Amino acid sequence: MRMEGFAAREGGDDGLLDDGDVGMHARGSDSKLGTRGPVLVTRHYNYWMPVVRYVVLAALVVWLGAIGQALAGEAVRYHVMIAYACGAVMVLGLVVMKFVGPPPDAFAPRLALVALMLAVSGAATIRGQSRVTLGVTAGLGAVLLGWYARE
After folding, report:
1. How far apart are CA 125 and CA 80, in angstroms?
2. Cα 60 from Cα 110, distance rounded (Å)
3. pLDDT over 80 (residue 15)
4. Looking at per-residue confidence, does 19 or 124 come out higher?
């Protein structure tokens, strides 16, 4: 498909068509004719959405890993910062997925669970960390992880 000087095709690795591909995709050109050089391939706006999904999943896994270490009795020095950083990445990623790409299944409950996890972590920071707050946060994170396992 040729649109205003840009050729679009699926699966382009580097965003450029090879010289042999240009002759086949250019409007009004004969395949025997030479090439005109590389042509920029436009990508679909959802091209990076799988990356965003995996970043959100990785943030959840890091958060759960820090909770697991804290529950095991190991002193996690930066547990609070890890929780807030991972929570912020997850909220940002979910909002990007909602408004840029196709929204994830059960967007509102997922966002609510992340917000609840952040609230529990914040309350634990103020009142003191306990196994109960860590367990609640881990349980909420396990529910989120279950949604990712189904996808």
Report:
1. 7
2. 12
3. no
4. 124
* Residue 128, Ramachandran bin (φ over 0: left; ψ between -120 and 50: alpha; else beta): left
SS3 of the chain: helix, strand, coil, percent, to 5: 60, 5, 35
Please report, for the chain, the start and end positions of each structural domain, with discontinuous segments joined by +.
1-43, 49-150
- The span from the CA of 51 to the CA of 11, in Å, is 16
Residue 71's H or E segment, with its range, is helix 49-71
Q: At residue 121, what is the residue type?
A: S
| 93, burial (CB in 10 Å: exposed 0-12, middle 13-18, buried 19+) | buried
Strands 2-3 and 6-7: antiparallel
The token duo for 19 is 């010289």
